[in-house]
Every structure is written in structure tokens, then in C-alpha cells.
Amino acid sequence: MSSLLIAIPSEQPGGLDAPVGQHFGHCDMYTLVTVRDGAIGHVAVIPNVPHQQGGCMAPVQYLASKGVQQLIAGGMGFRPLMGFNQVGIQVYYGGGARTVGEAVQAAIEGRLMQFSQEHTCGGGH
User: Fold this and answer.
1) Considering the entire predicted model, what is its pTM?
2) In a 3-state reduction of DSSP, which class is residue 47?
3) How many CA atoms within 13 Å lie on the side-chain side of 66?
4) Residues 32-67: pLDDT tens digits?
5) According to the model, what pLDDT value does residue 124 have?
6) Is residue 125 part of a domain?
7) Quick check: 125 pLDDT over 70?
8) Three-state secondary-structure class, residue 118
């Protein structure tokens, strides 16, 4: 049985029906979705962390400490993308998904592109 923990920046109130936060560092919260054998399992919502301590790398370390293996985001800067790569979290571009559930389903079906430098925004976070 394979299991994967995916984090998705989310707007209020979080969860599968919540809108996807379009910029990971400025989202209200993250929805954490466990995918087991290609099916959505446990869903949890956690608050985002403030940027003051650790800057744009604070969310990277925070999500890594939660055991996140993949992140689906609409935008992020180059520095946090490199940070996610360093901690072993794969980042996928999910800018076309309207809800967290749509983004996760697209990931399960292999329809998301892995983030690259070309997808980063001009901001540092």
C-alpha cells in the first residue's frame, strides 16, 4: 500500500472544497491530503506560518516537519522552490485547479507539471 502526503495552499476554510491559494507563501492555510493507492484518504487543515521568522523558507521547513512529500502551488519564488527541492518535497504547478480537491485529483491522475524555474514568480516567496 503506497501512501503520499500532499500539501495544497488553501483559502478559508480549507479542505477539499476550498479554493486553492494561488501563492504558497501568502495563503491562509494548507490542506494536507493523504493519498493511499490512488485514492484520497485523510484530510487535515493547518495554519500557515508567519514569514517573519525564517522568511520565505519558514513554510518550507514547516511543511517538511509535517512529513509533506508533494506540494501543489499556483506560484512561488525561486528561493523557496530550491528549498523544497533540498528537503525532498516535489513541487507541482496547480494553477488551473479551482479547488483543493480538483488539484489533488489532477495530481493522482498525473496531470500536473513539476515546478521549474520557469514557473517561479518574481517574488522571493
Assistant:
1) 0.89
2) strand
3) 27
4) 999 999 999 999 999 998 766 557 788 899 999 999
5) 42
6) no
7) no
8) helix
In tens, the pLDDT along 72-114 reads: 998 788 888 999 999 999 999 987 899 999 999 999 999 999 9
> For residues 68 and 92, what is the distance between their CA atoms, to the nearest angstrom?
13
Place of cell 494561488: 22
Please name the residues in contact with 104: beta carbons below 8 A apart, sequence gap of 6 or more: 6, 8, 16, 33, 35, 40, 72
Residue 8: give the domain boundaries.
3-119
Q: Give ∠ CA 111-116-117 in degrees, rounded to 5.
A: 150
The β-bridge relationship of strands 70-73 and 29-36 is unpaired
Residue 84 forms part of a structural domain: yes
Q: What are phi and psi of 26, to 5 degrees?
A: -115, 15
Mean pLDDT of the chain: 87
